[in-house]
Amino acid sequence: IQRKFSSSPYEVYFPRNSAMEWQPHSPNCDVCHTSCQGIKRKKQLPNLQLAKRLKIIAERARKNRCVKNQGKLNNKNLMKKITNCKKIHLSTKLLAVDHPVDFVKAISCQICEHILSDPVETTCRHLFCRTCILKCLKVMGSYCPSCLYPCFPTDLVTPVKSFLNILDSLTLRCPVKECDEEILLGKYGQHLSSHKELKGKEIYTHINKGGRPRQHLLSLTRRAQKHRLRELKLQVKTFAEKEEGGDIKAVCMTLFLLALRAKNEHRQADELEAIMQGRGSGLHPAVCLAIRVNTFLSCSQYHKMYRTVKAVTGRQIFQPLHALRTAEKALLPGYHPFEWKPPLKNVSANTEVGIIDGLSGLPHSVDDYPIDTIAKRFRYDAALVSALMDMEEDILEGMKTHDLDDYLNGPFTVVVKESCDGMGDVSEKHGCGPAVPEKAVRFSFTVMTITITHDNTNVRIFEEVKPNSELCCKPLCLMLADESDHETLTAILSPLIAEREAMKNSVLLLEMGGILRTFKFIFRGTGYDEKLVREVEGLEASGSTYICTLCDATRLEASQNLVLHSITRSHTENLERYEVWRSNPYHESVDELRDRVKGVSAKPFIETVPSIDALHCDIGNAAEFYKIFQFEIGEVYKNPDASKEERKRWQSALDKHLRKKMNLKPI
């Protein structure tokens, strides 16, 4: 009743301005009634009896206090067990100075009674270690362990900076044996880490720097997260190196998986487990790369699609661009390690070589032929290795088919077809780039066959089914140049040819299917049309008197003899003839010299295998049959000396027939 009308809590029990008038709470209570009357009217009861009764009351009050104190003591022991911080927090016994008891109590945690570590203050102004109070609040409920005032984790704040400075300036004795050094609490962790005998042991102590309240780990920047988790990272690394062969990623992901399972978050755990086992819910990066390339999407277009799909579905079906770039590295030359025995002459032993400038290594001086071109290429050996690794499954499957799984002898013989051709007009639609030719040339290769020698017989374990398909044709060099420009072609392709010549006399060591295997290469330059053959073999152009790239026949000789021809030209012979053309050792005239070298007028720089390409074969066939049909119409066997006018009539009759009956345009 008095509490309602009282302005101060102290007036509930003892009023300041008047004497307390005691009233019995019940007329039936002998103790209260007689005690209150005894205080007021001393004459009614003897002093001895009153003293006896007061003694009984005091004894009961003392017993109640003992029970209460015993409860408090048990409660404190329970909280100490909950926090279990004996190993990580510092005892007040380490203080170097004998401080007053009240001061020691002020700088120690009211739960664990150790020196405050990362101190926090409650709304009721009590101080605790952060870890201690958080553990107690979680286990025992949301109230202050000291005064039972309501308290929540969000209410905890860092004490004022002046108090933290006092805390950091406390002097401690080093707990390590044979170290009598006295250090400040603020520098304790730094000093303790200098002891070699404690390396790897649990020596964690929170280094309090004051300032802002300690933030949650996830709210920190990446740099701050690394800093805070430094010690844990080192411990995980040590464990991974000792137990799991250094696989830190597997250890961390397994810990995360176990944490998710413990929290019953099984959906996330299943997704993580699928990713760990390589069967993630999304597409494989190589599949995403194939989609991007085959749908002609630019990087920005693909990224936009990736973000849209992720936002709409809530799942990462497509992989991000950086994953595609990583997958692309494995598909491009310069990714797989390899070795040559003996090492290639004038070629670097470095295997991590990707796309290189086609003009690199060319000497630049005023007298040199000015090269206005852009060229990009791969190193020949790195490109071959990449092509072989792409075909790894086919090669191993071929060996399995012939029961040669355990074949370890001798080299694999690889036949490589080389191709080079002009790509026609590649001019810009909106020209603002460098001044370069508007034509392109591409040099490429195809792995045709792979054979191994087993029991003195050649076993073909791989053969290209579609040798003219663009899918098996691997680009090696691309340049913006005219295929008729002999000087530019020579300058850019010469390093490739030098690498090829070096590879002819060496053996490749490459790990395939987990076994180190040897490969030997045979190069066949058959993928050239007539124009390119003339260009790279140093022959005159197609309007020359020397009509053939395979033999020395002139136009006149070829017209007189359509049947009896044999291949007589070779790369070595062309080189010898070029030397004769260059030096003119016999001091002949131009016509005599030209007749001697049989149409060689430039230095041959690529060895080609003599062959006629399909296009020119068709053109030659058409021209020959065109003549034969005319002769049949005019019955030339009856009249071999027909006049020019008669021959014209035969041709016009054939043209008319081709137009009307065959719907063809005779050209």
From TrEMBL:
Residues 210-277 form the NBD domain. Transmembrane segments: none annotated. Binds 1 divalent metal cation per subunit. Mg(2+) or Mn(2+). Its EC number is 2.3.2.27, 3.1.-.-. Residues 170-199 form the RAG1-type domain. It is found in: Nucleus. Residues 109-147 form the RING-type domain. Homodimer. Component of the RAG complex composed of core components RAG1 and RAG2, and associated component HMGB1 or HMGB2. Interacts with DCAF1, leading to recruitment of the CUL4A-RBX1-DDB1-DCAF1/VPRBP complex to ubiquitinate proteins and limit error-prone repair during V(D)J recombination. Belongs to the RAG1 family. This is V(D)J recombination-activating protein 1. It comes from Caiman latirostris.
